[in-house]
Amino acid sequence: MRSLRLAFADLRREPAFTLCSVLALAAVIAPLILLAGLRAGVVAGLKEDLAASPRTREIANIQNLALDAAWFAALAARPETGFLVPRTRLLSATGSLEATARPGRVATVEILPTAPGDPLLPGIAPPGDTQVILTASAAQRLSISAGDAIRLRIIRRVGDGREVLNLDLTTTAIAPAGAFDRDAIFAPPALGRRVQDFLDDRTADGTARRAEGFRLHAKRLEDVPTLVALLQAQGIETRSRADDVAALLALDRNLTAGFAVIATVGATGFILGLGSALWASVSRKRRTLSLLRLMGLRRLTLVLIPIWQGIAYAIGGSILGTAIAIAAAQAVNRLALLGAAEGRDLARIGLDEFTLACLLATTAAILAAAAAAQRAAGADPAEGLRDE
Amino acid sequence: MTDAPLRLEGVVATRRAGGAAFSLTIEALRLDPGALVAVTGASGTGKSTLLDVAALARRPDEAMRLEVCGTDAAALWSRGAKDALAGLRARHFGYVLQTGGLVPFLTVGANAALAQDLAGRRDPGHLAALAERLGIGALLARMPATLSVGQRQRAAILRALAHRPALVLADEPTASVHPDMAATILALLAEQARQAGAAVLLATHDAPAARAAGFVEIPLQPGAASARLPALAEA
């Protein structure tokens, strides 16, 4: 392309001017990329902290309820819902657990309902009717391994006496350490209902049951506040980390807004700086452009010359600016200037930031070159005839 | 029959500088292939105005006929077809200006190659042979700023003729060189143009040098706010 060849030939003839222009643009671009990297690093780091534990997305009811199957179906159908299973009354879902092979060593465990897709039990098959999954804490306390037979004992008071329900179960797996901090077993919902029926001295009659609560996990962090608000609107009080998530999302929004303002100011400076440099360059070379027009160059070719040069400056400035920003980011990460967490990069500059910088800088460069291009388009061939 | 590289009839062009205006009337001027015409006269006599109009760089106020190699350039001016005019310039014209008028960021060779590209007549062999004839074969990779004035004018002649144009427009090509060198430059321009079959329209103060190089002189008279190029000035 003729305009491209001429634009680059002109740039090559003035390496010092070209280098200065690229440096000036890099000086504008580098802090913007570093700022974008810091924003990405801070927000992503906090998000990773929250996302590392699926319990962050957990929403639990804090009072007993009476929820029917239609309620569960409606909530399960919402796009924000990641996992939902009914649970029994909060206080009644406990029992005494011991290894069948080592009777006498007992731990009180909570009974947590589970179902396929439980985010607390990734990669673990859901237990069958007489199977359970132990939390790591319970397994350690009772020295139980996957495959061990266990006995769950439920005791109820009848008058002055006590009645005992013994459930012989099999441990199919041990839950990951972070799944649940206390001693507990993950069991099919039916097991929890059976325990509750025993405690209530109620016989299962096959009629539809209402659940006293639920285990709910949002699909994404961002969905937690939405679900909490939805439940609150139904009069259901919940416990969750919605406030933490909301605070993170607010921080992300605020940092993004702040970055947008700073980026706008920087981009304005970039456009004005590059625009004036290109304008001055075209003014300085007006006679040469007129000469090219006299020789028969088309108007479009002349117009494209400052635009190609602007794009070249922008790409050069972006590459250099990104290199400077990466060096600065490494320094920030190494020194943990802003109190970065151990092992986590406070500033993250990747291909996305570089690509974004190139695209924005190129767009800004085209805008900046527009005035210079307009001036180049007006080059008068008669001026080319006159030597100064 | 080959079309004349340039035909002007009833052309009026006015140039305004400051508050003053100068008007040039060209009754008839026809340059046939190989014609060497020198428009001579002091500053302000209309040489530049004539050259601007002939070079299709200035729109005439009136033009009964303004043709370049048979193409009606007056019609292109009236349509505002500036890119079409640029195309005519690229295909049919070459230029030798006061200090060469070379594109400063291109080498000598690239300047000449650009003229060939624009004319659609890429011919590296012709370019190299012409450069040898002009004695600048070793200077093709040099930038114009590194050349002496004499070398630059030879380079300008190279660029002006590299794409085999029908007409070379030369504006004071010897004004910046030593008088001895001026005769050489004009002789070289005339000789190479003659060999290429190109007409040359030369604007110069130096009438004797132009005559010596074989140019037909058209003198313009100073002192008037207007000048007239009579029809008998056909070459």
From TrEMBL, chain A:
It comes from the Bacteria. GO terms for biological process: lipoprotein localization to outer membrane. It is a multi-pass membrane protein. Residues 261-378 form the ABC3 transporter permease C-terminal domain. The chain crosses the membrane at residues 257-279, 300-329, 354-373. Its main location: membrane. This is Putative ABC transport system permease protein. It comes from Falsiroseomonas stagni DSM 19981. The lineage of its organism: Bacteria, Pseudomonadati, Pseudomonadota, Alphaproteobacteria, Acetobacterales.
UniProtKB/TrEMBL annotation, chain B:
It comes from the Bacteria. InterPro entries: AAA+_ATPase, ABC_transporter-like_ATP-bd, ABC_transporter-like_CS, ABC_transpr_LolD-like, P-loop_NTPase. It holds the Pfam family ABC_tran. Keywords: ATP-binding, Nucleotide-binding. One of its GO terms (molecular function) is ATP hydrolysis activity. The keyword ATP-binding applies. GO terms for cellular component: plasma membrane. Residues 6-235 form the ABC transporter domain. One of its GO terms (biological process) is lipoprotein localization to outer membrane. Belongs to the ABC transporter superfamily. This is Putative ABC transport system ATP-binding protein. It comes from Falsiroseomonas stagni DSM 19981.
